[in-house]
Amino acid sequence: MYLGRIWIFPIKSLDGLEIEEATITSGGILENDRIYAIFDDQGRVVNGKRTARVHQLRCTFDGGLKEVRLWENGAPEQFCLDAPEPINRWLSGFFGFAVELKSDPKAGFPDDRTAHGPTIVSQASLEAVQQWYPELTVESIRRRFRTNLEVNGGEAFCEDGLFGAAGELKPFRIGEIDFLGHNPCQRCVVPTRDAVSGEAVPGFQKKFMNLRQTNLPAWANAERFNHYYRFAVNTSVPAGQEGKKLRVGDEVRV
């Protein structure tokens, strides 16, 4: 297997950016991945779990990830990420309540503070899931699950071999970087919705759970599935990997 795609999501819950290489930070994340997040005045993150309004918000970034362009309809507005006040006003108007964009370039804002490394899935798995929902495209499935690393060359759900028994951290390597596989990633409401319109697919979660169980590889550790709404693998990056680079084409070795 080899690394086929790398995705980062500079602002948590917003549009991603496909890149050819990524550096590991001292906090064990991909550089620039989810290093910004939107918070309300109670300190709660504003994301797709909380409001489907997030899906109507589009963004693109300049090459140096110093500026962002935001829009819903009409012409995009450009903002400097180092000067947050204008972007805070714009986002507050968009959501209809006061919000603030915060930054943590070292550790970012992952959902899982223990398995805080990049999430991993295989292209074959995305294609298999797309077959369960023939009305959707592979790109739609990819955007719904928002996984950082996509591997090629394996069978569907081959990434289920990157985690072990409960309490076990399974080592593997991509290129020159060591990883620890934790568990199959528990999913939220976000994959049930179109990543652009926010429109939900009726019965998405129930259908996914039934077919995930039916298609679980015979060699996979079924004990790690307390339910089958789990897809992709949560990881962490052990100490000593800071500054190393992942590149598309890197070999995956278990």
Primary descriptors:
single chain, 254 residues, alpha+beta, 2 domains, four-stranded antiparallel sheet, 15 strands, globular
In short:
This protein has 254 residues and is an alpha+beta fold. It contains four helices and 15 strands. The protein has two domains: 2-8 and 22-29 and 111-253, no CATH class; 36-103, no CATH class.
How would you portray this structure in words?
With 254 residues, the chain is of the alpha+beta class. The chain has two domains: 2-8 and 22-29 and 111-253, no CATH class; 36-103, no CATH class. Helices cover 16% and strands 28% of the residues. It is built from four helices and 15 strands. The strands form five sheets. The chain has a four-stranded mixed beta sheet. The longest helix is centred in the middle third of the chain and has 12 residues, at 84-95. The mean pLDDT is 96.
